[in-house]
Amino acid sequence: MLRRRVPARARASGHPAREGGKTAQQQRLEVNTLLPSRPNCGLYLVEKFLGEGTYGKVAKCRNLTTNKEVAIKITKPSRRDSGLFELNALAEITKLDADKYGLIKFLDWFEYRSHICIVYEMLDQSLYDFMYTRRHRPLSIHEIRTIARQLLISLKGLKEINMAHCDIKPDNIMLVNQASEPFRVKLIDFGLTKNPRDMETGTHMQNLCFRAPEVILGLPLDERVDMWTVGYTLAWLYRGFHIHPVDSDQEVKFSRCCLSYDDLKNFYQDKTKTTEVELFIKLLRQMLEIDPDKRITPEEALKHSFFTMEQPSADSEKSNSQESTSEKGHSQAKKTTVPQEPAAGKCF
Fold first, then answer.
1. Does residue 297 lie within any of the structural domains?
2. Looking at the structure, do residues 107 and 184 belong to the same domain, yes or no?
3. Overall average pLDDT of the 221-240 stretch
4. Enclosing domain of residue 282
5. Would you call 167 a catalytic residue per the annotation?
6. pLDDT value of position 331
7. What is the pTM of this model?
8. pLDDT tens digits for 308-324?
């Protein structure tokens, strides 16, 4: 399929357009709707709606030209500007190799009845849904390390092109294909992604549960907010639940001052992995550093002993798993192949 070029700088128009005398509200998208892209580039059949949010819907569609499944993010006409904002971010993000840097692959975009439609590759399920289906049973240290390395490579790539995701959370981290490539992940949803120099002090961003301290406190912001959210996500995968009360900003701020890493270290059930767990907790402390000036960078994190130590085999990890004896234990690890860190400074 031909790729439609992302505009160097998309322009936002005024009010949503009307077509054929019908308002956008009357032009509801339904299953079996045909979405025409630009001429000779594809016709998409809506097969299923995967989710809906403030800005629109995500639909599982089939390209009737290639017979391939895709995911199309369909922005509400009233949120047209947010769709154009995402296209502007994609103009920068597509400078990176999506597979090497663990980013969802952008395929096409078009407009349909005042909806901005952004076509992406079809992925499996989010980390949030994955954890939900396994009743929030924590991951093994091997599985966490596999995911952590990939997310840090993603942050490294975004930093190389001067972009910050600004909304990393389990919902926006997708498993590519858990059956064939266990724990290979990609970042999705670039609706809030921007250049750090455009991040204004005092801006509210990020899900409250994963919100960086500098966002809560109204301090200057940059790409380091993403390191906080990746660290918190890894802690969530390790624990199975949030590691702080999250009823309010004030409660989050207070509890962060009282965080016990010793409790986290002692939580892991398999005591044969004590050294690996201790290294993970040390890395976590550096990722969840309150002061962003002291927070570890993606480049530094990838060189951390948690990744560079001699790794046990996946089979060994599996044999030591206590999943079969305790619902609270960590799950068995599966052997998987994940993208390796690209050469330093190389932009694909």
1. yes
2. no
3. 96
4. 125-319
5. yes
6. 42
7. 0.81
8. 986 554 444 444 443 43
